[in-house]
Amino acid sequence: MENSKQVYDKNKRQEYDNKRYENVFKLIIILKIMYIVLALISTFSTIKSTSFQVKDNIYMISAIACIIAIMMNYYLSWSSNYSKDRVYEKSKTRDYIESFVLMIIFVLVISATGLQTSDYKILSILAVIIGAIQFGQKYSVGVSICYSSIIMAIDLLFNKPSAEASVIYLEKDIVLTAVLFIISIVLGMYVDTERQYFKELKKVANMDELTGIHNHRYFQDALTRLIEECNDNTEVSLLFMDIDYFKHYNDTHGHQAGDLLLREVGDILKACIRNGDIVSRYGGEEFAVILPNTGQQHAIRVGERIRKKIEESYFKGQESQPNKNLTMSIGVSTYPKVANSKYDLISTADHALYKAKAFNRNRVEHYHSILDELYENNQVNKEVLDNLKKLMRMINQKDKYTYGHVERVVKYCKYFGGYLRLSPKEQIDLQIGAYLHDIGKFDISKEVLNKRNNLNSEEFEAFKSHSMNGEIIIKEIECLKPFIPMVKYHHERYDGKGYPEGLKAEEIPYLARVLAIVDSFDSMISTETYISEKVKDSAIASLLADSGKAFDPQLVELFVEMLNKNGKIV
């Protein structure tokens, strides 16, 4: 979610851009009004200087003045609404119509003020200036060609070969057309250069200096815009990506090597995406790709293509990585079918990314909640679902390791519950208990939760309190009370030496005994940097060694049997 500073910066940039566009628009409107006003002044001055005996001329000039006045009124009403695309990007049909109207006014003024002898041909200079400021060199050169053609056509059609004055007017008009071309080229080139410079400044402001891809600020702006443009028939998907074990790579090879790696990954991402997709560096070693008009399944295929390309590419020093390779984990979410807002889209993609990292990395995970699946299948009611989600958000914000651990324990419990042939209700209860079992850690400090070395006695006592803390938290929620035994007793030991009450054997609730094995197994394997078969075998050996001591021996035997039959659970 964008913080207040990001929102402020974004609003200030937008305010600056809008002010710039509006000022240019106002300048163009002023110049066009001046053009029309000068045209009216020229025709009225001609009326005033014309003899009242020449009634035909008076009527003709009056009619021209009225036509110009009507055009001015129409133009002012048409141009009253400011729109930035009318001053900065490609010219459109309405812009050509405007230029044509101004050209008609020019022809009427010249016709009313003496044709070849008219002193008001200089209006063409103002028209070329308007064209240059509004759309740059190419457009203004076109305008200068049109006006020069009108001026020279009048000279040729109304030229009197025998009159010396006609030759003088022709020479003056040749100089005028040359001036028009010079103004259109020079002023147009200046405007084009200034606008290109402005675009480059915006581009630099939106680019990550290290990787050469879009930065976090541009990502936020682009995602906001695409979601606002989304309708019932379109979707926007988001890929969140994180380089696996990047800290290990940085610590091993140094920050310069880490920076080079980030640039190489950025280049690969640019090569893997389609035209119209937006790749950004979200922060640190995290990247994001916005996929407009893309559903979840196609987004997963894009993510898998990126993951495979990263895995197959060689990066200097990758041999020192825990898995002897450099890989990437990717999370996928989609608006509006999965997420219902920009914040929700970022949150669910981040959730999916962390799930990919929690389940041994180097994989693509789409956002999927077992809780939502249970609710959709009418296996859990809305009240339980809402309270579980609220508590899980608390854990996620407190400690991502605990959150990832909970996700894995739930997945193991889902498989183990089925393997034990528990009743449907017991299987659901086991999964919900797995979600809740570490909720008491919310009151334990991050330093204790994330400590890699053995806890001292004081820290261990604080850690042990999470079973009782969990009971305190959920006993206030009526619909969650049935799950208190799993939360409170999943650290009891089969030999009676556990906590908090020292229960033993079958005094410990059955589902709490099931949960204890799964919880311990995941805790053992997740302490390792890379979960290999060797790590799993070591954890299984520890379970067997504690069979009948810490754990129910029959359940340990069945759990190990399940792992040996299906080693791909994680």
TrEMBL record:
> Mind telling me which PROSITE patterns this protein's record contains?
GGDEF, HD_GYP
Q: What name does the UniProt record give this protein?
A: Diguanylate cyclase
Q: Which organism does this record belong to?
A: Romboutsia faecis
Q: Which CDD domains match?
A: GGDEF, HDc
Residues annotated as transmembrane: 24-46, 58-76, 96-115, 122-154, 174-193
Q: Where is the GGDEF domain?
A: 234-369
Membrane as UniProt keyword: yes
Keyword set, alphabetical order: Membrane, Transmembrane, Transmembrane helix
The HD-GYP domain extends over 380-570
Matches recorded under Pfam families: GGDEF, HD_5
The record's section on PANTHER family has: DIGUANYLATE CYCLASE DGCM-RELATED, REGULATORY COMPONENTS OF SENSORY TRANSDUCTION SYSTEM
Keyword set includes Transmembrane helix: yes
Matching InterPro entries, A to Z? Diguanylate_Cyclase (IPR050469), GGDEF_dom (IPR000160), HD/PDEase_dom (IPR003607), HD_GYP_dom (IPR037522), Nucleotide_cyclase (IPR029787), Rev_trsase/Diguanyl_cyclase (IPR043128)
